[in-house]
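Thread title: Can someone regenerate the structure for this chain?

I was given the following input by a collaborator and told the matching structure tokens would be attached. They weren't. Posting the sequence so someone can regenerate them.
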Amino acid sequence: MAVQVAIPKDLEAFSSHFNAFKSRSSPKSPCNSSLFVPFDGHMGHKVDLPSVPSLCPSWSRTQNPHLASIQSDFKAWINSSFKDTAMKAKVLDFNAPLFAALSYPHTSRKQLLTIAECIAWYFPTLDTAITTSADQKPPNNADAYLTSRELANVSIFPLLGLIHYAHGSELPVAYSHKENKTMAKLWKEIARISVLSNDILALRGEVLHARHESLVPLLMKDGDLDAQDAMDQVADMVRDALARFEDAERELAGQVEEGARKDVEGYVRACRDLVVGQLEWSFGLKGGVGQSLVVEDGTVIFYVR
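Best answer:
Regenerated them for you:
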């Protein structure tokens, strides 16, 4: 099912909200109103977002069967690890067990619980740690933006590192992303898919905080596109990255020596699981927006405020 994004019709209220936020911003974290410009004339429009099956119809989608059984242990760990009430609420709201169950569907119960704890410790606090430099410049174009985001992707690379723990195996050094150019291609496409999928449903937060880290308004501005065309273009970028991943997967299969085949194939399957889990999390609205915005017929109303 496609997801719909609704842009508010009340431009005056939207601008008022932005100005109120701008007045609260510190000099070191300036709001840049250039991100709002592409949406002039689009207030009230609905934009269809792609569903996960439409992006990767041939890729299997599953969820770890141990999800329900780790919930009580996870909550006990949260209560003992986080004393600050606000942070504890933020961590619980993030729902790290579900994130882990989507990203590592074949790991054991013990590993799933530990991974959920790692994710809960790292990701909900990530936004708090990110600051915007006063000297930060917006990217010149989409390619420059994607390159910078992929190189500085602080979310996907730790998740890739957890694959070894999740499956209790080590990838031979000769096939690591540092030593093998084809594996490096796989990592690059995984990073790109992560950036693209996060950007679509992170758009509301990016605009609210006036960050330069959102591809949709950049495409609208530089490509003279409307909101729907920009969204469609990002979805096509995801599909293209998935196709390149599959090309690299086939290329790698032809390089692997027989003695390493089991470990390499298992690692690549885990990379596929991680990609689908990321897409489910972003496009499936399990993390990017929140179930409170899902209306009765399954449509999601996403207000850029």
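The chain has a mean pLDDT of 75.
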